[in-house]
Amino acid sequence: MRVSAKMPPAPSSYELLPRSSSDLDSSTSILEDESFIKDKPRRRGHRRQLSRFVRRARRICRFCRPLYVFVAFVVFIIWQLLFNASYANPPAFSIPEGETVFLAANIIDGGLITGAWGKSVVDFVELIGKERVFVSIYGGPTEALKKLETMLPCEKKLVSEDQHPLDLGAIPRTKLPTGESRIKRIAYLAEVRNKALEPLDEMKGRRFDKVLFINDVFFDAKDAARLLWGTNLNKDGESVYKAACGVDFVKWWKFYDTFATRDAEGYSLGIPIFPWFANVGEARSRKDLLEGRDNVRVKSCWGGMSGVVLS
């Protein structure tokens, strides 16, 4: 059995391709037919944006060279030393005769109690006069408090937290989204502070002019006295304030007490480097600091040391 197929008829005519460039007809050349060959469109805008980015990156890299970074760091250090240094020229002040001070403190660092901190407390008592100061401390460790107690020549009450712990069950708590119960921080700190202030209730009828509250901070006895009697002096050389705080630093250049401090209008602090306060509202606190005043008005503060006028 045979299978046969018919071939399709051949075309009667077809156009031959040119064999050489001389055979090309300019009117029908496929090389000149714009519809036949088209260049890929160029994304000029994209290239321009990319080139700008590269140029900017190169400029930034120039400033990131180790030498430039070192110079910038040195300039920053000099700026901090010039403008963030301790107050160099405070006005003179005097300690009024007869004024009494109730010194309250919370501390749990035994090394500080028997070391530099404890020595500063003793120096403050001797500076003011042992008959004019009452020292009340709540904290520990117990042995460190006992050692400090023998060093203090004034009236005192040093209570160990280990021997007289707080009733944690009576302190308000809050519940986290996870369901975990936590003691409220502010409520806990208030209880700790009140423990150091308890002798004021026990000595009813005893009068004190000022309360000096100190935390576990390094301080100088003369600076503590200046806080109490050298803050916002009037023309008669008398301090005028209701409460005043020290300035506490976690590093020599970094302001520490951002948690409790609010400026004169109630705004929180800016970045914790000089001049600390944000330039918002009337910025009274910021302006006081930049003007180099001996006191800076604030809404609230702590700073590791605070003085309160009682009379």
UniProtKB/TrEMBL annotation:
Keywords: Membrane, Transmembrane, Transmembrane helix. The chain crosses the membrane at residues 63-82. InterPro entries: Mannosyltransferase_CMT1 (IPR021047). Residues 15-26 have a biased composition (Low complexity). It comes from the Eukaryota. Pfam families: CAP59_mtransfer. Residues 1-26 are annotated as: Disordered. The keyword Membrane applies. PANTHER family: CHROMOSOME 8, WHOLE GENOME SHOTGUN SEQUENCE, GLYCOSYLTRANSFERASE FAMILY 69 PROTEIN. This is Glycosyltransferase family 69 protein.
